[in-house]
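BUG-394 | component: ligand-complex export | severity: low

The export step for iron/sulfur cluster jobs runs without errors, but we want the raw record kept on the ticket for reference. Input record follows.
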Amino acid sequence: MTDQSPPVADFQLVTRAGDEAAQSTTYGIPLAVLAELTHRCPLQCPYCSNPLELEASSKEMTTAEWCKVMDELAEIGVLQIHFSGGEPTVRKDLTELVRHATEVGLYSNLITSAVMLSKARLQDLADAGLAHVQISVQGAEQGLADRVGGFKNGHAKKLEAARWTREVGLPLTINAVMHRQNLHQLPQIIDMAVELDAERLEVANVQYYGWALKNREALIPSFAQLEETNRIVAEAQDRLSGVLDIDYVIPDYYALRPKQCMGGWGRQFFNISPAGKVLPCHAAESITGMEFDSVRGNKSIRWIWDNSEAFNQYRGTGWMPEPCKSCEFKEVDFGGCRCQAFALTGSAGNTDPACAKSSLHAQLFMRAATEAAEEHDRFIYRNFSGGSVEGGEF
Ligand code: SF4
Ligand code: SF4
């Protein structure tokens, strides 16, 4: 996918009639679903939320399979589909998929790095019914942005595509994934989003699992940087009220309580991987040993959502160990992020160490501060060969 933060605020719960009383055990189908069409991508971002083991193109679902999935999504009450990846525009059938989404009544959003878009293609997508475009940026100026994305001239292409997006009349969100090496450009990124006539800017600090965990030393900000970021975002939110909506995701290594990741496991969100696996979170495949059902099997998406072992394993609060089990916030954050708990403790069933009540939290905070101070800036780029250490010029 092109960023680390699917617009989870958009993934609201749709409760089935009569289900209100049973909400602790039964969950309505989410309003929106993330469709990861491919893991192929010309960029190589060191924080990519795709799994370390990327899905080969030969395993990707066909046009017909995705159309069948969309028929089913529309039938069970999903209203929005977010086409993502990897880079969804590498799929030659993207316009056909958007047209099908429109035909079955799904609102469609394109989450893209934008480097492969032309104005003609954007026009075709708009004509097929695409409703919104989200473009990721890696910085505010070419040198740094191209280096982070590992793709020459990518930044200039993104700016051009963002302008075309508005020229063909589509609303635009800019997604900026922030870390130690680009946080100093945040004020310019905010100005850039205004200049590009975006309606929304997502300022998302890197979440450390998968590729980002591999690159944590090169990405983790200092506590002082975080405090400055909080100030810049708060000032801009105030100054640009009514001009630009700014969403902000703080890095949880420095937080006291973890985020309600994905609105809680299996509560408000699912995504479908390039090979058709139905996942409770876009990073869920980073949890090894867990089996996920596929739309290619003989089970319906509705059945998978309601009954699959992977969705039910960490749903609600019944699975929780202490300190979550007796915690007053357990219905607020649902114990934080399962992928982060797995990455940092070896078990997805543990309390997320981002929580100050976890015995590992102080250690995590210190490790983050130490790694930030060491300034090991070299990236391991995300690619199909398992990653390559930064070496060349951008
Ligand atoms: S490499 Fe970058 S642009 Fe490509 S899918 Fe990953 S985060 Fe998105
Ligand atoms: S102990 Fe668990 S439920 Fe309580 S705040 Fe921490 S992560 Fe959330």
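Assignee comment: Attached the raw record above. Residues 4-25 have pLDDT under 50 and may be disordered.
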